[in-house]
Amino acid sequence: MLLYKLRDIETSLEKEPLKNKDLLEAIVSLKSIFLKLNFEVEEVPEYSFTKILKLLESIKNSTLTKNEELILRCIIKKK
């Protein structure tokens, strides 16, 4: 579900790629992190920003960038 929401945002931003370059790079990074998740084994807290932030930072082995956090907030809020 989160990857679909991420793709929706990416599609919107691709309309003006030069203007949204940094956000598009953040989306690529987040997709890469999400694809490392084993959704069958790991419980992904889709509705808790704090919990999913901790999970993604654990997988990335560093903190998320401001743009990655911004995009993450958007996909958590988006229904």
Provide the succession of SSEs.
HHHH
Q: Fraction of residues in helices?
A: 55-70%
Cα shape? globular
Please indicate the percent range of residues in DSSP E strands (runs of 2 or more): under 5%
- The total strand number stands at 0
Structural class: mainly alpha
Provide mean pLDDT, rounded. Answer: 92
- Estimated radius of gyration: 12 Å
Count of alpha/pi helices: 4
Spatial separation of the terminal alpha carbons: 10 Å
Largest sheet: none
How many domains? The number is 1
Unreliable spans? none
Short descriptors:
79 residues; mainly alpha; 4 helices; 65% helix; globular
Fold blueprint:
Blueprint: H1 2-13, H2 21-35, H3 49-60, H4 66-77
Tell me what the structure shows.
The protein has 79 residues and is mainly α. The chain has one domain. Helix content is 65%, strand content 0%. Helix 2 (21-35) packs across helix 4 (66-77). The chain is globular and about 35 Å long.
